[in-house]
Structure formats: C-alpha cells, structure tokens
Specification:
Layout lengths: L25 E4 L2 E4 L4 H4 L23 H6 L18 E4 L4 E4 L3 H9 L3 E5 L16 H12 L4 E3 L1 E6 L2 E5 L4 E4 L4 E4 L3 E3 L12 E3 H6 L7 E4 L3 H10 L3 E4 L7 H9 L4 E4 L3 E5 L2 E6 L2 E5 L1 E4 L3 E3 L1 H6 L4 E4 L4 E4 L11 E3 L9 H9 L6 H8 L5 H5 L18 E3 L4 E2 H9 L5 H8 L11 H9 L16
Parallel strand pairs: 3-9, 4-5, 4-10, 5-6, 10-23, 12-19, 13-14, 13-19, 14-15
Antiparallel strand pairs: 1-2, 7-8, 8-9, 11-20, 16-17, 17-18, 21-22, 24-25
C-alpha cells in the first residue's frame, strides 16, 4: 500500500473527488504521474495517524526564507523528479472553427444537438447521469447516449487548459489544438461540490457525491452532508441521514416530500467533527455520533468559475445560495460571444440542465422557465435588482482544512482576517492558499465564502497540466 501525505502537516490524504486538477488526484512515482482514482486500493488508507500541526502563516516568515531552506524544500514536495526534455510538442492551429462548446455534461450535449456549426470539446463523458442508480431507466440517459453517437463527427476529445495570446488552447491526446477567435463559445463546463469544513475533514473517506457514485460498491453505509436537493438525491440512494448547517436549508418541496416518504432523517447541526476508527469513519454531531464507511458531501454545486474567469467573463457571489455565478441572463447569454449552460449556471437537475442547452437556440423556452421556477436559482434572475443580505454559510462546522494542498485551516484564515486582510487575493499572498496543486479550484471558493467576498483570485493559464 502506498501512502499519500500532505506537504506540511504530513497527514494521510486521499482525493475527495476524481476530477482532474483537484487535490491528491495525482501522485508522482519515478517521475511519472499516477492517477490515484484509477489505483484506489493501492492508495486508500484507513488508519488514524500522527501529524505535525502548525499555523501556515509561519511558512511565510523571514526566518524560513534562508537560501538553505529554499533549496531543500523541493525534496519534500510531491514534484516530478524529471521531465522529458525531448518530448515533441505538436500544435494544431485552427482558424476555421467558428462555434465551440466546452464541456462534457448534459447541457453541452443538448447544445450540440441544436447547433449546426458547433464542435464540442470534452475530455470524456462521465456525467453523473450515467452513474446515478436513481436514473437507471430514465429516458434522458438514452437520449444523451444517442446524441453522442449521432454527433461523433462533431466531438473532439480534449481538455481546455486556458486562454493564451495565441488563442484558446486545448490539450488533446497527442497534440494541442489552438482555436484563435471563435465567434461563439458555449461554456458547459459544469460544477463541482466543495467539501465542508470541520475538524478531521481531510480524512480519507470524506468524499463528494460524484466520487460516491463512482465507487458506490465500496461504501455501503454512509451519511450525507448537504443543504440542497443533491443531498436528498444522495440519501435516497444510500438510505442515510442528512446533516446540514442550521439555517441553510435550500431543499425544494418536491424533494422534501420524497425524503419524508422514504423516511430520510434531515438533521440541522452547528458543529461536526470526524475521526477514524479502524476501517470506519466516525462523525460526531450535536446529537451524538455516526459510525460509517464514508461521509458524502453534496452541499451546493459550485460552477467552475476558474474557466469563466480565465476567459474574461465577469462573475459575482450569489449570497442566497453561496455560489459564484457568471454574469448572464435567464437564457444563459453572457455577451455576443459567450453563453453558459447547465452546471456553469448552478443548475443541478438533469432535465433542467438539458433544457438549458436548448434555450440558447430559442428552443423549449417556456418549459425551461416553468422548471426553473421550482428551484432556488429562480431568485437569481427574478430578483437580481434587490439587494441581497448575507446568509449563513452551509460549509463551516468548525476548524478544519480549507486548503488541503497547502495544509491551511480555517483558524489560519481567521487569524489573517483579524489582522485586516479581507480579500481572497490577500489571503493568497499571506497564507499561500491557491498556490498548491489545485491552484484555487477548491480553497479560493471556500475562503471567498468565509470572507463573503464578491471576487476570488485571478485564474491564469494553464488551468490544468500541460501534459
């Protein structure tokens, strides 16, 4: 068994999600990148462990800036031992592609079906709908498969890695594709779940809904943390309890009724804490404790704002739902060049996500509006002119890690806040958040939420590994 340890506190770690670019999804062995989720049994570690804990602000003190320490730090970090300098880099520049869809989700495929001149660029098609047992026999899944099959000539497999001076750059299997000036870009890049913050929140066995669905057979007995319909949808699969921060409930009437009919307990708490007990994980809460195989979080779907920001799209913090959203209208239009769909709009429902890809082309508008009214997102469009008041964050239950890449805890952020630092960028410069492997894809959003900040950091290219 291989052990993954954090850089500073030397704690055992494991990915919370298998998405490329997130913490601990890759390790380096003999100078080669290894995908951890493809080697689950090899790297998953159950035991409690001794760890070294200290404030991350110490790292930035003058005492530790000696040349000797700076020269030796890389020896203790998870870095490749070598790069292949002889690797041939092939670049294809395409000026003919006029309309592109970036992303692999339901909404992107829906847009592809309705767009005559588009190509869709995606690393894969592993949307939750293909993993969700509640959607085992749903017709939409068959529809999605049909779109993929019938539009195979308009699909390119690759990863968007950022906007450069040369154009939009995509990493393909054997080369790079550069699209200089597309007239229309549809962002269907989806969303992700951010982890809750509490003591022990970095332990192996605390995983996202998406990872739970991927390894459903390994985690039989779980509890769920979340405040939206995704939490109930997860609990309906696992037949488990749901815990959420007091005052953060954002469930729809439809799913509350489903939870009641299925006997799903929903408990509001103020504090949580986790520890390991052999192969089990223990979750302590206001009313007692739960001993389970895994803790699954499905709190709120956070759009992948780093992609929108990299493309120059403005975004704001939507206080009511505690998510950052690209600035767009109800039809998904950002401006004459950019559109957003599905998870990039915070949409979590499969059917609604599919419809969001259609309305860009003025299809199924009435149906989309009717479905949207049943979600908490409708407030964003219907009452945007009203001043929003801050609400209780659904993420914070105690002093846990907000940045697992750099071992930074909520207490570290609180200390810097007391010193007068109020922005995510200032926290980056004083604590080092967003400077680790994930480059802010998790921590900047959590810290931004804590600070109630309207802006995060600047997400520069490349957003993902260049190879």
């Amino acid at each position: 068994m291989k052990y993954i340890k954090s850089k500073k506190h030397k704690r055992y770690r494991f990915p919370k999600d298998c998405e490329e670019g997130l913490p601990y999804t890759e390790v380096i062995e003999d100078g080669k990148r290894i995908k951890v989720c493809e080697n689950f049994e090899k790297y998953f570690h159950y035991s409690n462990h001794f760890s070294i804990n200290f404030s991350s602000s110490i790292i930035h003190s003058k005492f530790l800036r000696s040349q000797f320490i700076l020269n030796n730090i890389p020896r203790f970090l998870n870095l490749p031992e070598y790069y292949n300098e002889n690797r041939e880099i092939k670049i294809e520049i395409n000026d003919k592609i006029d309309e592109i869809i970036i992303g692999e989700g339901i909404s992107g495929l829906s847009a592809l079906e309705n767009c005559k001149n588009c190509i869709l660029i995606s690393p894969n098609f592993d949307d939750e709908i293909f993993l969700d047992p509640l959607c085992k026999d749903c017709s939409l899944k068959d529809k999605i498969k049909s779109i993929i099959k019938n539009n195979s000539n308009k699909i390119v497999y690759g990863r968007f890695i950022g906007r450069f001076d040369e154009g939009l750059v995509f990493r393909l299997k054997d080369n790079y594709l550069v699209i200089r000036k597309p007239a229309k870009v549809i962002l269907a890049s989806g969303s992700r779940f951010l982890p809750p913050v509490f003591p022990g929140n970095d332990l192996p066995g605390i995983i996202s809904r998406r990872m739970y669905l991927k390894f459903l057979n390994l985690f039989k007995n779980v509890v769920v943390i979340g405040s939206t319909d995704d939490a109930i949808r997860t609990a309906l699969i696992s037949k488990s309890k749901i815990f959420l921060k007091k005052g953060t409930e954002n469930f729809s009437k439809k799913y509350l009724e489903l939870a009641e009919n299925e006997g799903i307990d929903i408990l509001e708490v103020n504090e949580l804490k986790a520890s390991r007990k052999g192969k089990k994980i223990v979750l302590y809460h206001d009313y007692g404790k739960e001993i389970v195989d895994a803790i699954v979080f499905a709190i709120v779907r956070q759009p992948r704002i780093e992609i929108a920001n990299n493309l120059g799209i403005e975004y704001n913090f939507y206080h009511k739902s505690h998510i950052y959203l690209p600035v767009h209208n109800i039809n998904g239009k950002v401006n004459d060049n950019y559109y957003v769909t599905g998870g990039m709009r915070g949409i979590y429902d499969y059917e609604l996500s599919f419809l969001s890809g259609k309305i860009i082309f003025n299809e199924a508008i009435d149906e989309f509006y009717a479905e949207l009214k049943e979600t908490y997102l409708y407030h964003y469009y219907n009452k945007r002119g009203e001043e929003e008041s801050s609400s209780i964050s659904p993420y914070f239950f105690g002093n846990g890690y907000v940045c697992e890449c750099e071992d930074i805890k909520l207490k570290d952020v609180e200390e810097q806040y007391k010193k007068g630092y109020r922005t995510v960028e200032e926290m980056k410069r004083t604590l080092g958040i967003s400077t680790g492997y994930c480059q802010g894809k998790i921590c900047s959003f959590l810290v931004g939420d804590y600070l109630n900040s309207n802006k995060l950091i600047t997400f520069r290219s490349p957003l993902y590994s260049m190879w």
